[in-house]
């Protein structure tokens, strides 16, 4: 995406705050109305700034949307994977129980992220199918999350069934995404609590060496 010279990166506090207002306003509108039914003028109005001010920070609404996608994946990484506390055990049983607890933590917190932003996630998924550039951004940001999952699994590699940790990380993330979509967006009569239990049990059977 070619950027014009007028879009700038703020360095002073006032400019940073203005950019944040734009992003937050856009996130609200994309969630309420959808990407295609929102325009720059509406984003500026919701942010309580002039339309010209919007174009001082972003060339178009697509740039704001891409910024939001980056923040969504960054939020999952920071609020879920970077909050995991690692312990080193020589005892395999301790590793098994700890990693099982970590899987529970990851599943429940990713679900919470989707619960808070479920309509926004729908917009992201829809735009990924329609826009190749946005799909590339999603892949790039998703890779960062996968790399963090790899770091988690490598810490407990002696307790894992698989030797291909990177492939396991991809499977783990994609499986969680699909199951979260089923819980939040799908149609099923099975209660969320029952599904979560089976998701965690299935992950443990796939990843962990039973003690």
Looking at this protein, list some descriptive labels.
Tetracycline Repressor, domain 2; 211 residues; 9 helices; mainly alpha; 0% strand
User: What gyration radius follows from the Cα positions, in whole Å?
Assistant: 20 Å
CATH 2nd-level architecture of the largest domain: Orthogonal Bundle
Q: What is the count of distinct domains?
A: 2
Beta-strand fraction estimate: under 5%
What is the helix fraction of residues, given as a range? over 70%
- End-to-end Cα distance, whole Å, is 52 Å
* Structure summary, number of beta strands: 0
Q: What would the CATH topology of the largest domain be?
A: Tetracycline Repressor, domain 2
Report low-confidence residues grouped into runs of 5 or more: none
Q: State the CATH class of the largest domain.
A: Mainly Alpha
What's the main sheet like?
Answer: none
Q: Please count the helical segments.
A: 9
Estimated structural class:
mainly alpha
Given the C-alpha coordinates, what overall shape results? elongated
Q: Estimate the mean pLDDT confidence.
A: 84
SSE sequence, one letter per element? HHHHHHHHH
């Amino acid at each position: 995406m070619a950027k014009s010279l007028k879009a700038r990166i703020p360095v002073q506090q006032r400019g940073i705050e203005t950019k944040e207002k734009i992003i937050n306003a856009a996130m609200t509108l994309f969630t309420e109305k959808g990407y295609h039914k929102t325009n720059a003028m509406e984003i500026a109005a919701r942010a309580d700034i002039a339309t010209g001010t919007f174009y001082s920070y972003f060339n178009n609404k697509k740039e704001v949307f891409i910024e939001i996608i980056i923040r969504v994946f960054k939020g999952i990484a920071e609020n879920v994977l970077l909050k995991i506390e690692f312990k080193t055990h020589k005892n395999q049983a301790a590793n098994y129980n700890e990693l099982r607890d970590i899987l529970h933590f990851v599943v429940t917190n990713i679900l919470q992220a989707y619960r808070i932003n479920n309509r926004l996630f729908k917009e992201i998924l829809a735009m990924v199918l329609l826009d190749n550039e946005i799909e590339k951004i999603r892949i790039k940001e998703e890779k960062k999350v996968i790399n963090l999952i790899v770091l988690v699994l490598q810490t407990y590699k002696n307790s894992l069934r698989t030797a291909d940790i990177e492939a396991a990380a991809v499977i783990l993330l994609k499986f969680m995404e699909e199951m979260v979509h089923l819980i939040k967006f799908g149609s099923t009569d099975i209660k969320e609590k029952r599904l979560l239990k089976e998701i965690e049990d299935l992950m443990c059977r796939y990843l962990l060496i039973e003690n």
